[in-house]
Write a structure and sequence with these properties.
By secondary structure, this protein is of the alpha/beta class. Helices cover 47% and strands 15% of the residues. It has two domains: 139 residues, 3-Layer(aba) Sandwich (Rossmann fold), CATH 3.40.50.1000; 64 residues, DNA polymerase, domain 1.
Length: 220
């Protein structure tokens, strides 16, 4: 194997969460009397955590206290509705099963709130991750390397033995900041041309290509 550990982003990488994120965003905006956002706008807003999503979605110039209220409304709604329309990307479940059977460790590091990461991982990929972690108070969000480093410590793996797999410019930066190689998927929330402009170098169009790379059979 080229890597002992595969660390996955969640939104846009292993789960298509966009519709639920958009619905929760528009519920929170509407509850406070603000205009809604299109799904394509929400697609552009995600990647840096829920707080940043809300800051981008609300009208410009709102006071911090009002943004806090919209954020709280979003969080309460999303906790109850995070799996209404969310679905796994085709081929990811068998990929994880094959990686685990081959002895590869697996983990999730996400900027989604940890209170959503844990139930989503259990619901769609129960028992297929050695460790999963989302956004928590006091821990810097990606692209800071903190949560990736936590996974490496917890699973006792060196950076050169791990690969980070994601779908966004945040994931490219996260891998670089943590000293990991990266694999960028093309089925997520960003297009390839943009990701190439952000420094992405190794792309996959299908989950099975990830397995090939981890097994040492893909392009490096």
């Amino acid at each position: 194997m080229a890597y002992k550990l595969a660390i996955f982003d969640l939104d846009g990488t292993i789960l298509d969460t966009l519709e639920d994120l958009a619905d929760a965003t528009n519920y929170a905006l509407g509850a406070h009397g603000y205009p809604g956002r299109t799904i394509e706008e929400v697609r552009r807003f995600v990647g840096n955590g829920i707080r940043k999503l809300i800051e981008r979605a609300v009208p410009a110039g709102l006071a911090k206290e009002e943004i806090d209220r919209v954020h709280e409304t979003f969080s309460a709604y999303y906790q109850q509705h995070c799996a209404d329309k969310t679905r796994p990307y085709e081929g990811v479940l068998p990929l994880l099963e094959r990686l685990r059977a081959a002895g590869c460790l697996t983990a999730v590091v996400s900027n989604k709130a940890d209170t959503a990461v844990q139930p989503l991982c259990r619901r769609y990929y129960n028992g297929l991750f050695d460790y999963a972690v989302g956004e928590r108070a006091g821990i810097r969000r990606k692209p800071a390397p903190d949560s990736v480093q936590e996974v490496l410590r917890r699973l006792q793996v060196n950076p050169e033995e791990a690969v980070y797999i994601g779908d966004s410019e945040v994931d490219i930066q996260t891998a670089e900041n943590a000293g990991l190689d990266s694999i960028i998927v093309t089925w997520g929330f960003r297009d390839r041309a943009y990701l190439e402009s952000q420094g992405g170098r190794r792309f996959v169009d299908r989950p099975e290509e990830i397995e090939q790379i981890i097994n040492g059979n893909g392009e490096l």
